[in-house]
């Protein structure tokens, strides 16, 4: 993954990527990227990239989770990552870690994130590269990405450096998404996510009825609940607008590649998790894990 994180960084800064990837990045790259730096001598990015494109059967899964804010990408991606033994990498978490630090980026990021806007591709790819490097040092392989890619440019950059096996697109009606975002809480001590919203909406206008129980914290977390600064109604609606403009085209990008698995959430975790395992053909794996527990 060292090659992957170096390539991601190079791609984000307009540096060396394969000619094919650069062609795909096309005009978007030209819009933002600084002048292209020549590849360092003796550092064959392209050759290294080919080496890293290992057949799926010889490595752990490389999956992406897409979906609107509040849909539950984090919940299902982290459950699957535990089941499959691969890291769950959420770029939103990387951004929040940076926000919580005293690093030079924190103030700049706070302004962007608290308005519900997207962080620049360059910053997000630097954060992701650092995370991949750390994982590689710890012997990680494979990943489930959550919240990345969020723009077609990010998808093209990722495509230029590694193979994504599958993209799961989680879907839920918009009124439910807003309620779920407003109900989100985080324990300021253990960092776990909860949701105090009880979703119970009737089916109407062709939309299905949805029932989702709240995901309440245990007693010891109860008094430490905090709400994300970007989970206010105004910011959530802005994030949904931005998702529709910037991130929905990413679905089309992967649909064209035949990698997109659409998944309409039928309800809360008790209904959705078994169905998701079923469509992913992973029921046996869950049973094996439970049996071994
Ligand atoms: P959401 O609940 O909207 O899915 P996340 O936790 O994934 O939120 O992300 C929180 C914020 O972090 C986003 O609103 C955005 O400002 C920033 N962010 C996360 N991932 C990306 C990305 N891939 N590109 C740009 N900005 C990102």
Automatic annotation (TrEMBL):
**Keywords, in A-Z order:** Kinase, Nucleotide-binding, Transferase
Record's catalysed reaction(s): AMP + ATP = 2 ADP
Q: Does the keyword Kinase apply?
A: yes
| Known EC number | 2.7.4.3
What Pfam families does the entry give?
A: ADK
- Give the main EC class: transferase
> What GO annotations for molecular function exist for this entry?
AMP kinase activity; ATP binding
What domain of life is recorded for the organism? Eukaryota
* CDD domains noted in UniProt: ADK
Which NCBIfam families does the annotation name?
adk
Stated family = Belongs to the adenylate kinase family.
Q: What is this protein called?
A: adenylate kinase
Species of provenance: Panicum hallii
């Amino acid at each position: 993954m060292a090659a992957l994180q170096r390539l991601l960084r190079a791609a984000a800064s307009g540096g060396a990527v394969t000619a094919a990837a650069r062609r795909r990045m096309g005009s978007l790259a030209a819009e933002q990227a600084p002048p292209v730096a020549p590849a360092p001598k003796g550092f064959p990015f392209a050759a290294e990239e080919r080496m890293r494109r290992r057949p799926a059967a010889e490595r752990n899964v490389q999956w992406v989770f897409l979906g609107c804010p509040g849909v539950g990408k984090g919940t299902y991606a982290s459950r699957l990552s535990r089941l499959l033994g691969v890291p769950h990498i959420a770029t939103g978490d990387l951004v929040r870690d940076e926000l919580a630090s005293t690093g030079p980026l924190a103030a700049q990021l706070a302004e962007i994130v608290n308005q519900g806007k997207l962080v620049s591709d360059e910053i997000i790819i630097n954060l992701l590269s650092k995370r991949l490097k750390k994982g590689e040092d710890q012997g990680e392989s494979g990943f489930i990405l959550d919240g990345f890619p969020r723009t077609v440019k990010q998808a093209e950059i990722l495509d230029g450096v590694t193979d994504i096996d599958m993209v799961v697109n989680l879907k839920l009606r918009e009124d439910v998404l807003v309620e779920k975002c407003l109900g989100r809480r985080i324990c300021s001590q253990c960092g776990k996510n909860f949701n105090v919203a009880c979703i119970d909406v009737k089916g109407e206008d062709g939309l299905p009825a949805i029932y989702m129980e709240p995901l309440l914290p245990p007693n010891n977390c109860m008094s430490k609940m905090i709400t994300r600064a970007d989970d206010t109604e105004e910011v959530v609606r802005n994030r949904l607008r931005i998702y529709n403009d910037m991130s929905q085209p990413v679905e089309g990008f992967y649909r064209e590649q035949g990698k997109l698995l659409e998944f309409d959430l039928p309800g809360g975790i008790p209904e959705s998790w078994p169905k998701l395992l079923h469509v992913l053909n992973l029921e046996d794996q869950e049973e094996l894990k439970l049996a071994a527990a």
